[in-house]
């Protein structure tokens, strides 16, 4: 099925404000936060590595995440014509092939900016970019299936960003197992967070054959699955912290999880109307737990040994 959209009085060049809208600054926070959590969890003195930390944060947010948004908007322009016709590309504020050109340029800029991070950093950025194109662009277009697409986003936004921050701070090496476990668990939990963003696009996704979880499972089923995934991931983090003799950090994350569970109970009663509400008010408790976990493990003996 094809969907047409009109471009009224389209300018020859894109509006600079439209480019900023295309890059979606509001989405940059999660990977920047995860990178910072990773850097903190590495247990090294950050005061001595401020320039490296700042560069890493800039790459994960305004560059890598922004490029993924440009890629997604270009390949989603027909879906956006249904769900969000005022987006820069379907509205004509970014005309012609400019959307694709911006996506390619920003991708190349990411790799260039990553060079000072060394082999580990460049490799991580390269993997993130491959996933961002694979998520949106054919022939892979991971987002066509909610299970696969949200897994890919969770992996790059949270897990890969966390591992990259830790690895760079540890001198371009693979982080110790506790950090890999935390990154993995928070990546899994992020799958649920990504599902919250899919409720607003159900109509367009159904028409364009995008099998998001709300489309596959229905709004009620997707709401329950998203909530369960987020809570189970945090429960596993709590169990690990207890096993690592970090009971107070585990208790703090438990309290944050309880607050989320209460909000999720209200969310599942009316998921389509309250998905954005939970995303805006509930997810901050989830990401706060990430930072608590990062501080909890930075003093583990295995981390201290790796940071020498």
Mean pLDDT: 93
Poorly predicted runs of 5 or more residues: 1-10
CATH class equals Mainly Alpha
Proportion of residues in helical segments: over 70%
What is the chain-wise order of helices and strands?
Answer: HHHHHHHHHHHHHH
Radius of gyration over alpha carbons? 20 Å
Q: Total number of helical segments? A: 14
Strand percent estimate: under 5%
Termini distance? 58 Å
Largest sheet: none
**Total separate domains:** 1
What is the 3D form? globular
Q: Which CATH architecture would you pick? A: Orthogonal Bundle
Structural class: mainly alpha
DSSP strand count: 0
CATH fold topology: Farnesyl Diphosphate Synthase
Pfam families: UbiA
Transmembrane segments: 28-47, 52-71, 98-131, 152-171, 177-196, 217-242, 248-268, 275-297
InterPro entries: Chl_synth (IPR006372), Prenyltransferase_related (IPR050475), UbiA_prenyltransferase (IPR000537), UbiA_sf (IPR044878)
Membrane topology: Multi-pass membrane protein
How are the elements arranged and paired?
Layout: H1 16-23, H2 29-41, H3 50-75, H4 77-83, H5 98-114, H6 118-136, H7 146-169, H8 177-196, H9 202-208, H10 213-243, H11 247-267, H12 271-281, H13 283-297, H14 301-306
Structural write-up:
The protein has one domain: Farnesyl Diphosphate Synthase, CATH 1.10.600. It is mainly alpha-helical. The chain contains 14 helices and no strands. Residues 1-10 have low confidence and may be disordered.
How would you summarize this macromolecular structure in one to three sentences?
The chain has 308 residues and is an all-alpha fold. The chain has one domain (16-306): Farnesyl Diphosphate Synthase (Orthogonal Bundle).
């Amino acid at each position: 099925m094809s969907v047409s959209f009109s471009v009224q009085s389209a300018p020859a060049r894109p509006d600079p404000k439209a480019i900023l809208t295309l890059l979606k600054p509001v989405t940059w926070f999660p990977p920047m936060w995860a990178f910072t959590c990773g850097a903190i969890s590495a247990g090294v003195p950050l005061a001595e590595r401020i320039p490296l930390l700042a560069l890493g944060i800039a790459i994960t947010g305004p560059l890598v995440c922004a490029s993924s948004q440009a890629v997604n908007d270009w390949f989603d322009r027909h879906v956006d014509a249904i769900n969000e016709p005022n987006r820069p590309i379907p509205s004509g504020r970014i005309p012609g092939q400019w959307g694709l050109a911006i996506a390619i340029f920003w991708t190349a800029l990411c790799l260039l900016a990553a060079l000072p991070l060394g082999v580990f950093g460049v490799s991580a950025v390269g993997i993130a970019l491959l996933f961002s194109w694979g998520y949106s662009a054919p022939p892979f277009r991971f987002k066509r299936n909610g299970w696969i697409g949200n897994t890919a986003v969770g992996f790059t936004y949270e897990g890969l960003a966390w591992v990259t921050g830790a690895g760079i701070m540890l001198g371009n090496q693979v982080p110790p197992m506790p950090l890999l476990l935390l990154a993995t668990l928070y990546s899994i939990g992020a799958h649920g967070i990504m599902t919250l963003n899919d409720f607003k696009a159900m109509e367009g996704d159904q028409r364009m054959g995008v099998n998001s979880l709300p489309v596959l499972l229905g709004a009620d089923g997707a709401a329950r699955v998203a909530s369960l995934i987020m809570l189970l991931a945090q429960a596993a983090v709590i169990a690990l912290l207890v096993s690592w003799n970090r009971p107070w950090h585990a208790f703090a994350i438990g309290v944050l999880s309880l607050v989320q569970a209460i909000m999720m109970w209200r969310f599942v009663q009316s998921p389509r109307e309250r998905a954005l509400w939970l995303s805006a008010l509930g997810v901050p408790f989830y990401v706060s737990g990430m930072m608590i976990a990062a501080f909890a493990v930075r003093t583990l003996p295995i981390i201290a040994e790796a940071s020498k």
